[in-house]
């Protein structure tokens, strides 16, 4: 998923859409246009630099693929792992010292894929 998400980002898609598109391609689930379009409202930390929209995209993917109970567990695990690496969850804090977010998007895509594979059974 890492390479797919970075590819989509380099094609001009926003962070959350990159994650959702990469997951849909990797795990072969249909991605209705309406779901993809939902991502336009959460980019750039909901437009005010709050929670990273790539993380939001991941949680949306979990919700598509898993029950609410599993999604909540996966979300918590994702947030803990991400916060351990980056020191927070907010877009403006995470992206402040980076020229672009390819590394962040790639890391989130990788964590998302690992969690999907872990909880798939």
The major pleated sheet works out as: none
- The SSE string, one letter per element, is HHHHHHHH
Strand tally, please?
A: 0
| Poorly predicted regions | none
Q: What is the terminal separation in angstroms?
A: 19 Å
Q: What's the alpha carbon Rg, rounded to whole Å?
A: 13 Å
What is the typical, i.e. mean, pLDDT? Answer: 91
Percent of residues in helices: over 70%
Q: What structural class should be given to the helix and strand makeup? A: mainly alpha
Number of domains: 1
How much of the sequence is in beta strands?
A: under 5%
Shape: globular
Continuous helix count: 8
Structure in a nutshell:
With 121 residues, this protein is an all-alpha fold. It has one domain (2-119).
Molecular structure report:
- With 121 residues, this protein is mainly alpha-helical.
- The chain has one domain.
- Helices cover 74% and strands 0% of the residues.
- α1 crosses α2, α2 (15-27) packs parallel to α8 (102-119) and α6 (68-86) packs antiparallel against α8.
- It starts with a helix and ends with a helix.
Architecture blueprint of SSEs:
Elements: H1 2-10, H2 15-27, H3 33-38, H4 43-49, H5 53-65, H6 68-86, H7 91-95, H8 102-119
Helix pairs in contact: 1-2, 1-8, 2-5, 2-8, 5-6, 5-8, 6-8
What attributes characterize this protein structure?
121 residues, mainly alpha, 8 helices, globular
């Amino acid at each position: 998923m890492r390479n797919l998400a970075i590819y989509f980002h380099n094609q001009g898609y926003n962070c959350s859409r990159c994650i959702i598109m990469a997951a849909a391609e990797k795990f072969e689930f249909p991605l209705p246009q309406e779901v993809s379009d939902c991502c336009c409202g959460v980019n750039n930390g909901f437009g005010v630099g709050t929670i990273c929209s790539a993380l939001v995209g991941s949680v949306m993917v979990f919700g598509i693929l898993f029950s609410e109970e599993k999604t909540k567990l996966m979300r918590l695990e994702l947030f803990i792992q991400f916060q351990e690496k980056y020191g927070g969850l907010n877009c403006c804090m995470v992206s402040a010292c980076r020229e672009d977010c390819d590394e962040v998007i790639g890391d989130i895509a990788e964590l998302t894929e690992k969690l999907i594979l872990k909880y798939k059974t």
